[in-house]
Design a protein that fits this description.
alpha/beta; about 150 residues
C-alpha cells in the first residue's frame, strides 16, 4: 500500500480534505496521512463541506509533520506553496510532489467580506473540496505522471 502524506502550512483545511478524500476514495490503494509545517487545528468549515459530500473528517486532528517522521512515507504531496517552500527533508526515499490548491479561508475572507452569508463564505471551501476530490480520485496514477514531469 502506498503511504502518502498531504502536507500544508497549518494542517487545518486543504491537507485535511485531501486525507479525507484519500481515505474515502482510495483506502484500498493509499494509506493517507496529513500534516502541517505548523498546526492550526481543524477548520470547522472544511469539516462542514466535507460532511456535505459524505466524508466525515471530524475525527482527524491537526498534526505537525515531525509526528510522522518514522512512518516510512512513499510520497509527500505539498498542497500549498508555503509547504512546498518549507518542506522538510524526509528520511528514506519519500518523493515530494507539489500540487497546490487555493486557500479556502483566504478566499472566503477576500470574496465574502464582513456580512457575507454562510453560503457565500462556504463557496470557496466547496470549490477547493471538489478540486481536491478530483485530484485524489486520479491517484496513484497522477503521481506517476508527476514523477515523469519532474
Amino acid at each position: 500500500m502506498l503511504k502518502v502524506l498531504f502536507l500544508c502550512t497549518g494542517n487545518s483545511c486543504r491537507s485535511q480534505m485531501a486525507e479525507g478524500w484519500a481515505r474515502h476514495l482510495k483506502s484500498d490503494q493509499i494509506e493517507a496521512y496529513s500534516a502541517g509545517i505548523e498546526t492550526h487545528g481543524l477548520n470547522p468549515s472544511a469539516v462542514a463541506v466535507m460532511a456535505e459530500a459524505g466524508v466525515d473528517i471530524s475525527g482527524q486532528r491537526s498534526q505537525h509533520v515531525d509526528e510522522l517522521k518514522d512512518v516510512g512515507l512513499d510520497v509527500v504531496v505539498t498542497v500549498c506553496d508555503n509547504a512546498a517552500e518549507s518542506c522538510p527533508v524526509f528520511p528514506g526515499s519519500a518523493r515530494v510532489v507539489h500540487h497546490p490548491f487555493d486557500d479556502p479561508p483566504k478566499l472566503a475572507r477576500e470574496a465574502a467580506g464582513e456580512g457575507a452569508s454562510e453560503e457565500e463564505q462556504l463557496a470557496p471551501y466547496r470549490r477547493v473540496r471538489d478540486e481536491i476530490r478530483d485530484y485524489v480520485a486520479a491517484l496513484p496514477a497522477a503521481l506517476s505522471v508527476a514523477s515523469e514531469a519532474e
